[in-house]
Amino acid sequence: PDQAEADHSLSLLLAHEPQRHRVTRVSAASEALEALAGGDFDAVLLDVGLDQGAAHDLVIQLRERGDFGTFVVLAGSGDRGSDLAWLHAGAADYLVKDRTDAQQLERSLRYAVEHARVRAELRRSNAELQRFAAAVSHDLRQPLHLVTGYAELLEACCGSELGLELLHAYTGDI
Fold it and tell me: 31-65: per-residue pLDDT in tens?
């Protein structure tokens, strides 16, 4: 498969639902860095071609900068090691050009976008739950600190009058 075939698949995808897709094409890593820094993208279709190492380095650089959401890898060839390496790097999917048609490409991108949306919602929900847990924890600890403080005050001022055994009977469970 060559660039013309990849372009053909992308053209079929865009023809399938042109109103749903806005495409920004770049041909170099530097252009990708610039485009992703200045744009708001739902997903990235990363055509890795023959140089998967350079594409992998680009993904790492983008992840470190925080400019990168979800991405689908479109490769010229595929083997179990490559697809797993890309999935471990964060790819939502790994497609092989000569085994992928426009419908599969569209579905993969749509699923990648939906999975990214769900992950973002889970992160928001988790952050909200952590804030709630912190507030509840504080609210539960505050009365206990007051009770403990009063028990210590009772022991300090009245311990000798009550006797330690009786005082510990009152305050031992606190």
Answer: 887 888 777 788 888 887 656 677 778 777 777 77
Strands 70-75 and 93-96, by their bridges, are parallel
148 pLDDT above the threshold of 70? yes
The token pair at 64 is: 């470190």
Q: What is the mean pLDDT of residues 15-44?
A: 75
- Of 12, 75, 66, residue with least CA distance to 47: 75
Q: Which two tokens stand for residue 172?
A: 């031992």
